[in-house]
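To close the chapter, one final illustration. This time we ask the reader to focus less on the individual chains and more on the assembly as a whole: which components sit near each other, and how the overall shape emerges from the parts.
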Amino acid sequence: MLKHILLVPVIFITFSINAQTTSYTKDSLQLRKIYNLTLTEGEAYNWLDYLSNNIGGRLSGSRNAQKAIDYTKAELEKIGLDSVWLQPVMVPKWTRGSREYSYIETAPGVTRDLNITALGGSVSTPAGGAKAEVIEVKGLEELKEIGQEKIKGKIVFYNRPMDPTKISTFEAYGGCVDQRYSGAEEAAKYGAIGVIVRSLSLKQDDYPHTGSMSYGNLSKDQRIPAAAISTNDANYISGMLKLTPDAKLYFKLNSEVHKDVESYNVIGEIKGSEYPDEIMVVGGHLDSWDLGDGAHDDGAGVVQSMEVLRLFKEMDYQPKRTIRVVLFMNEENGLRGGNKYAEVAKQKSEKHIFALESDAGGFTPRGFSFDADDAQFAQILGWQKLFKPYLIHYFEQGGSGADIGPLKQGDIVLAGLRPDSQRYFDHHHAATDTFDHVNKRELELGAATMTSLMYLIDQHGIKHINTEQKDKF
Amino acid sequence: MLKHILLVPVIFITFSINAQTTSYTKDSLQLRKIYNLTLTEGEAYNWLDYLSNNIGGRLSGSRNAQKAIDYTKAELEKIGLDSVWLQPVMVPKWTRGSREYSYIETAPGVTRDLNITALGGSVSTPAGGAKAEVIEVKGLEELKEIGQEKIKGKIVFYNRPMDPTKISTFEAYGGCVDQRYSGAEEAAKYGAIGVIVRSLSLKQDDYPHTGSMSYGNLSKDQRIPAAAISTNDANYISGMLKLTPDAKLYFKLNSEVHKDVESYNVIGEIKGSEYPDEIMVVGGHLDSWDLGDGAHDDGAGVVQSMEVLRLFKEMDYQPKRTIRVVLFMNEENGLRGGNKYAEVAKQKSEKHIFALESDAGGFTPRGFSFDADDAQFAQILGWQKLFKPYLIHYFEQGGSGADIGPLKQGDIVLAGLRPDSQRYFDHHHAATDTFDHVNKRELELGAATMTSLMYLIDQHGIKHINTEQKDKF
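The assembled structure is written out below.
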């Protein structure tokens, strides 16, 4: 009798192991197929070439942004998805105008030109430019210590550099971006007439890096012009001010804030065969800053996301769940596209179970960051070994991406692709964010890695943590 | 009584855990210090700038190679090592001569220029160049099938591309390099008058990539000229030959093989305080090809290796074991430096316990490959978690590096730094292997990662496997 009692669990275990092994083998082969196909017949690089070199920088509300909408919609239609559509969204429109000009004057007539660029959203200087003495600070909090008397009528120069000891350059960026975003708002409160911000880059060069800024609740007449200055020039001015504290900085911005205009998120989907109501999103943002051609930020994320769906079609893979690519508009200066997509999803009571964003450059992928609870994350970690042959090792809990953030509610898992970050801020929001700085294989490996994760979640689903917990307690 | 019996092991375990924790914490802090110092006050990038831009390509036996010897020796002397010396070694000398020229002729007078470069070690063409019909093959073994009759008097065109589905580009390179290395030797046996080899690069562009080749045992009069052709031109010719099989290829090489000349390995060391007879080597190769400035191959490895010792001095770290930096001469076309170093070490009965090589480009480091046995590797894996904050994840058994290979004997562990490999062959041995393609942070992270491993092995030593096994059995 003992013999029979023992047999039952043994058989059960064997069966269970075999089923697991079969599933693992199947997944493993499917990932190999995905990587091979991307690396041999990928379309992402060609799409990015067009987006970067035939269209170029795609600031929200610009003619180029509309061209990018038309182009990506047409390309998605060629893939043979079940549906492709545009989702209208009102976006802010800001224009740079003619090129900025700046110099520092150490004595009457003794000047040196500076490399600056208006921050996105900044008001222009007066028509004749702005000229004043400069107060260098390392951050917003220093303004209070210095006080209104010394700041009034001057130009505040924010010069806290990104911390080079952070291994993730995004962390170094996060530690400095308040100067760019809120620098003008804060300095205006102390009577400054303008601000200059050290470019958010770890590289020493002559390229200024733009980016979004906000005036908070300041009224229109309180707003002061704000510009970024190259890291080389930031060091130069800082040194110069030690020798000549009364040096004057001149700058002229020609920017203009317009009324909101209509634009679009571009959306395409393959309907799920088993669970069509469970929606999985993959996306990047279609808009970019205007200085370069937005190849890394976020042309890469756009074409990688499109490639996910193209690969599924190419492989004749019929997803169980509905897979949607969303090319978000206006991530850079408003996040209107991301907010609109989440708003419409809520209105329609759509059930999103997963969203993946690629918005960290087209560099060699290292893994993903997951906005998931512990049990969901444990499930995901079970797939980690499938990625080992592709040197994808980074699976961590953490943030995901700006555009998919508004989708967060209930059981949904959000994820962000995490490429190698070392070179990202060399190009971020600068004139050097161009196609020639994207490596074809690195871009493709990112697309294959994203497709692989989308495939695994489509196959195996995501744990419904809240429900399970309810069942348990 | 039972109480006392139980107490002994409990105390012992607690002590042991504490000791481990203390050691782990100490190591962890030391690694943080190493990374911080490299990323804020590193010298590697400045050294590489000089080596690349003030000296340039450093082919063995050239004036530039001697300049690089003088420069690195002087820089090592500035660091304050215990000793710095030159180790004489005879190296081959090959010169390219004036620029190569090539075209394909599809009809009399109808020609198109091609981008070619002589392979290192190739004989020149006749003074008037070589011109013949072309036979395209995918590899050495095809020659036999085609046969002498069809090959005789023609130019063999090796056109097997690197496999893009390999995630490690080194693996893809390994699958094709026989065409470059032995292509001329094999084709000559079938009566070919020259060979053209598709450049070993995964990138489609116009740059030909040189590299070493061998004539094996062929006598001087049997040797035929060999050149690499750009990937774009390889595709062009391949397409052209389908339309015009009798198209003729002309090429002219002006290379010359000279007598061996004396050169040097550059060596510096810090004497160990506890085990001065246990030597640990870190190195890269000082020579490079002549087309670019050898920034990635292997200027990066040279300056990273120098940085290891500089950091130890900068940190006031007194190693227990003797740490030696070796800048090997002639890795590219002879490996004479690596062989000489091992030969002298053997003559002097020096005990080398560890050697680390960096010769895979100055890209973001991913980890190491170890030529170590299972027990040694298990010991090393114990340190892996110390590297996690720096995103160093790749710890695998495998090959190490060409220059340290000859040191292999007994207990020694060999290791190779493994940087991200995706872009390496875009530049390898081509005119684009230049300083501007090296990212400062990526280079520095490599140096910090190497220094960290050297530190850990210096602190904890390497298991003496053979001895232990002897003890056991």
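The domain at 95-257 of chain B is CATH 3.50.30.30 (Glucose Oxidase; domain 1). Residues 144 and 190 of chain B are 8 Å apart (CA to CA). With these observations in hand, you are ready for the problems at the end of the chapter.
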